[in-house]
Amino acid sequence: MAFSYTFWFNAIEAEVYSLAGMIAALGLWVALVWRDKAPEAGSSRLLLLIGYLVALAVGIHLGVALIAPGVAAFVLLVRPRVLTSGRFWGALAVLAVVGVSVHLYLLIRASLNPPINEADPSTFERLWLVLTRDQYKPPTPLLRRAPVGFQLNEMFGQYLWQQYLMGGRGFVRMLLGLVPFALAALGAVVHARREQKSFALTAITIFFTSLFLVFYLNFTDREVRSRDYFFTMSFQFIPIWFGLGLVALGSEAGARLRRRQLATAAAGGVGLAVAIAVCVHGFANHDRSRYYFARDLAHNFLIGLPRDAILFTNGDNDTFPLWYAQHVEKERPDVSVVNLSLLNTPWYLKELRDGETGPAVPVRMTDTEIDRLAPVYDRSGRPLSVADQGVLAIVGANNWKRPVYGAMTVPEANWRRLGFEGRVVVEGINLQFLRDRTERQCDAGRTMSLLDGVYRYRGIIGPDGDRLRKLEVDPETEGLVQNYGAAFYGAAIEYVRDDSLEAAAHAFRRALVFAPDVPQVHIGLAAMYLEMNRLNDAEQAIADAMMRWPRMGELFKLRGDLFGLREDLDSAAESYRRAIEMNRDFREPYILLHHIYRRQGRIEDARRTLRDLLAVRPQDESAQRYLAEMERMAAPETTRIPFGTSVSP
Fold it and tell me: Taking the model in full, what pTM does it have?
């Protein structure tokens, strides 16, 4: 259990799940101690201790309460008369109140207006909203937000499968991955046969911390991050059955071989080997000895901003590092950070307005007006969330007196929906908001100076500028790393528009370092090399990309351009045909293939290619014009075929 993926991950981050898991495990252990002492006078005090721990843990995470059904069933099976005592229930109620009372400190702390004051629980009314998690109310489980099969298999099933992996590839990986679950299945059967009461305690607890949560939390199929951490407790209790399975194997082998001590040692050796294998397999993914990403991300977001800027961020991952940098290390405290997720809550907009989170953000709204905010539709029928209205209120009240930026982590659709299309320019990993419309999409010079000369990439990029492979990162961090690739890509596109091809190629190469799994970057670099007539470099770039995406039509189109520039028309035609096979709706290979056929005098093939294009794109004016020309003349093509110029990165 110690080296299972999620439990280990929780142990190395500043989160609530490790402590919650410890208290849950402690509660089950106390229940087992109580069973042994149940006949003794005063043993019910141990049950009261469990109740107190669960109530106390509400201040950490509500998930600890999921051990209550299993403990209750266990008590009913072992000594049910305990639950008929009014004195017991009275004491339990008092201890529960005492445990939950830990939250009262929030009234004191929130009243002092700390810079991070989530939900502002400075009154009993607001404190109650915090205790009931009003901000995070889950939707009704009866209306499924994703297919149940997806939630069980693609989410919980995948999370469970990744917990105890021991390495290997293909069939070996699958076989090794099944070992812990085979042991767990054996352990569960043995447990149910030999000791039904503690089996009920374990099984019910595992059920409520796994399948019940799948039903209750009702996750969508488009979650912003992996939700495996919600099931941490089930991942830590399932290994109880691993151990019991090993014990059963050792006992059976010892009985058959009449060498009980040797069999026990062998079973223990298997268990130790499994633990070591899981540890070795997962070490790189959990090694934080060279992990500076969150701190450097905050630095990079802040360092390039002008003084007194307002910066809109998206969620936890791009906001919490900024709060740390500003409030702990005092870096760029002049910047006002505005979290769009929290902007849906009235308390946060009030704190921004009143300067409790940092420099006051301009907002011309009273408390009453803020409290009345609700989702609406604007005059054009577009839906506007509370956060959308907050952004418009801030930008309007600011009236361009302070620079306004958005983090690149905010989806572009957000700004288009709010009417900022054509008024946002990439600047590093931030987006600058402009008063007037502009044709530029990126300030390439400023972006490259920040990316190549100012930003920090410790633990991600080595001194030679290449990606470090020794440090593995989680998918969420990898997604944030790709924002640097997106910034390089934006600069490259701007250089292409300015015909600065060498600068564009450099930007594309740098984008590949940060976003090697994004095909558009590979396509852009290859297209640049073709445009610069660096055919050998283009060939290598296309080949590298095809190793990753062997059935991508755009790559076959580029390879056709390469052959065409080398005057190998037959190979070019074959590549264009393959591009069309991969994507019937891809227009450019049809046009170029038609040009080749005309040049080769294959007039009927050229006509057929255009007709094929018109079958999927009947309104294509160029294809209609070319076909009309061919009906009038049957001469071969004599003009230069535009190889490599029809693909814009």
Answer: 0.85
